[in-house]
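One example copied in:
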Amino acid sequence: NELWLRLDGPAAPVVDRLRDRGDVAELADRGVLARAAVSDPFARALAANLALGFLAAGLLSVGAFALHFFVLARGRAADYAVLRANGLSSAELGGELLVAEGVVLAVGLPLGTLVGALLALTLLPLLTTLGTSRVGPPAALAVASLPVGAGLVLLLAASALAGWLAGGLGARVRVADELRSLA
């Protein structure tokens, strides 16, 4: 009583031929439905909510990254004061912070991307069918490589800049005051 087809070529000739049969009660073409969904207000609201969620998650992760390096640098203020008193330059101290920042980004960005991709694969099909009694194959998840890649590069650059600025701000120490507080 129901037939779902996955076609390798164009669907239009198959759809036209099935319509001409006369014994098909209802026929839906996924391509036509996908094009119609572009103007659907509920689909547009879902896309806008997902974009806002991505933006909020990105801003939160950049802020958390900056806060992490600020707290890290402030917590090491006494260590930095001793190192500066023993002749370590500010550039060498900044290099240590950049290495730490690079390690966190090298591990965190791929893991965060993997977790986000798994969540998207799990939750998006549920969000598209929530509250409906649709029967049929799940919604197709298409990933636009260019915007996703650009978003990841932007997230990487913003995190690196925020971490560098916050770490540099947190690493500013008054050597004499820090050394006096140790005594």
Q: What stands out?
A: Residues 90-129 form the longest helix (40 residues). The helical segments are 12-21, 30-37, 41-75, 77-85, 90-129, 145-171, 175-182.
